[in-house]
Amino acid sequence: MDQKKTVPEVILQYREYEVNMDDVTKRVKAHYVAKGNTEDSIESLQVYVKPEEFTAYYVINDGFCGKVNLF
């Protein structure tokens, strides 16, 4: 019996703003690649969302750190 895996769509709402968290993850990966890395090299990714700062901070592979705008 095949079971369909449901993938949640996570939307962050803050004040009058909203953003799809999948879009934030795509921006994080694009930022990482723009810094001279390859997306294939990502083994782990943590994203820390701080809506009050309009920023998502991230850590890739336990060492590369950066940030992107949320909105």
Provide structural commentary:
It is built from one helix and five strands. The protein is of the alpha+beta class. The strands form two sheets. A three-stranded antiparallel beta sheet has the order 3-4-5, with helices on one face. A two-stranded antiparallel ribbon has the order 1-2. A hairpin with a 2-residue loop joins strand 1 and strand 2.
Architecture blueprint of SSEs:
Blueprint: E1 11-14, E2 17-20, H1 21-34, E3 45-50, E4 55-60, E5 64-69
Antiparallel strand pairs: 1-2, 3-4, 4-5
What is this structure, in a nutshell?
This protein is α+β, with helices and mostly antiparallel strands and 71 residues long.
List keywords for this structure.
alpha+beta; three-stranded antiparallel β-sheet; 1 helix; 20% helix; flat
